[in-house]
């Protein structure tokens, strides 16, 4: 009979981290979400070698109080949830208190952070879950987190990372989505010392779309603004002629969170029925605002999938929102051709 024992902390930390941190892009996602939750209006993401060697996220958010700075790296340490009831209505992007602990378990981490109320900021260094250094430091308001050498202590994971360029593209794709979901935030991505994009943060989705996907894409978008079943659907959806070969240009954000959702994708496609060639796919960037208790984000550690309390209500809201945008466009085109 094999003996049962509780795993040592460094092993259980690595196992838990594995659920949240799969590649550099997962780190970037978690860190930008923290910056957004901290109320940042300017976020800069720098990566080198696809983020495998180096990631740095700088924000002008609220910062962390000196006495909390080391605590932030403990597993299940969070300022966003206090009791079980809070889990029913999550209004922040983070809530599990796992990201910083997971990142610190599998990489070398340095953080500089300062709140508005403090004269000096705090510097924290932590590697493989081991706290190395905590001291006062002069730094601007907000937080800067630097991550080096992801999976330096998990060779099995390191082996599964792809080439720098592939990992870098995965990072860029996450930063794209986050920038699109928060056009009020100015997001800058720097890849190997070159600025990849820089959104203006003027609160206009079209500006972010133009910056990230370019002029042709932006010019082929139709405005969406619709409300049904207490769900508000806003954003942009492509003209029927602007069809794509696959679903990669369909983006959905639920209450400010980038979400993978089949329901919304199918609903949007249905909205084009009769207007788009079969076998082609629409492009869209749609934001759904719904009561926090109507969507469960606590489904997966990476928080990319969600569960809707009323799936049909969500489907209908997206379907009718897209359908009416496409129909309005059709009417406009017919009027123009008639003149
Ligand atoms: P969660 O986001 O789920 O709360 P994290 O491990 O990502 O858990 O972060 C732990 C805590 O550290 C957060 O709840 C927040 O209080 C603080 N924190 C993390 N990143 C930042 C940041 N960029 N600015 C301010 N506070 C932060
Ligand atoms: Mg977080």
TrEMBL record:
Q: Which domain of life is it from?
A: Bacteria
Extract one GO BP annotation from the record: mismatch repair
Cite the GO molecular-function annotations of the record. Answer: ATP binding; ATP hydrolysis activity; ATP-dependent DNA damage sensor activity; endonuclease activity; mismatched DNA binding
Say if the entry is tagged with keyword DNA repair.
yes
Tell me the keywords, alphabetical order.
DNA damage, DNA repair, Endonuclease, Hydrolase, Nuclease
One cellular component term (GO) for this entry is: mismatch repair complex
Q: Outline the extent of the DNA mismatch repair protein S5 domain.
A: 209-327
Regarding protein family, the annotation reads:
Belongs to the DNA mismatch repair MutL/HexB family.
Q: What does this protein do?
A: This protein is involved in the repair of mismatches in DNA. It is required for dam-dependent methyl-directed DNA mismatch repair. May act as a 'molecular matchmaker', a protein that promotes the formation of a stable complex between two or more DNA-binding proteins in an ATP-dependent manner without itself being part of a final effector complex.
This one is known as DNA mismatch repair protein MutL
């Amino acid at each position: 009979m094999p003996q049962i024992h509780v795993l040592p902390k460094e092993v259980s930390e690595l196992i838990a981290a594995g659920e949240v941190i799969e590649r550099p892009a997962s780190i970037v996602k978690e860190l930008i979400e923290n910056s957004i939750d901290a109320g940042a209006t300017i976020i800069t993401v720098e990566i080198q070698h696809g983020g495998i060697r180096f990631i740095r996220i700088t924000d002008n958010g609220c910062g962390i109080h000196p006495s909390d700075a080391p605590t932030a790296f403990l597993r299940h340490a969070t300022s966003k949830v206090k009791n079980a009831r809070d889990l029913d209505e999550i209004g922040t992007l983070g809530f599990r208190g796992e990201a910083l602990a997971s990142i610190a378990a599998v990489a070398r981490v340095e953080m500089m952070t300062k709140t508005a109320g403090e004269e000096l900021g705090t510097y924290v260094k932590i590697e493989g879950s081991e706290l190395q250094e905590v001291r006062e430091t002069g730094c601007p308001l907000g937080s800067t987190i630097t991550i080096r050498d992801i999976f330096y202590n998990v060779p099995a994971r390191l082996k599964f990372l792809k080439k720098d360029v592939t990992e870098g593209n995965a990072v860029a794709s996450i930063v794209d989505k986050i920038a699109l979901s928060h056009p009020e935030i100015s997001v800058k991505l720097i890849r190997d010392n070159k600025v990849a994009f820089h959104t203006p943060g003027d609160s206009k989705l079209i500006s972010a779309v133009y910056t990230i996907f370019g002029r042709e894409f932006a010019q082929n978008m139709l405005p969406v603004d619709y409300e049904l079943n207490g769900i508000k659907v806003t954003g942009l959806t492509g003209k029927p002629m602007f069809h794509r070969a696959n679903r990669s240009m369909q983006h959905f954000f639920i209450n400010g969170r980038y979400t993978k959702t089949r329901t919304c994708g199918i609903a949007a496609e249905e909205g084009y029925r009769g207007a788009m060639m079969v076998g082609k796919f629409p492009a869209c960037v749609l934001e759904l605002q719904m009561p926090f208790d109507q969507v469960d984000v606590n489904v997966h550690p990476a928080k990319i999938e969600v569960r809707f309390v009323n799936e049909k209500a969500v489907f209908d809201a997206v379907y009718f929102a897209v359908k009416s945008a496409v129909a309005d466009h059709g009417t406009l085109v017919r009027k123009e051709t008639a003149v």
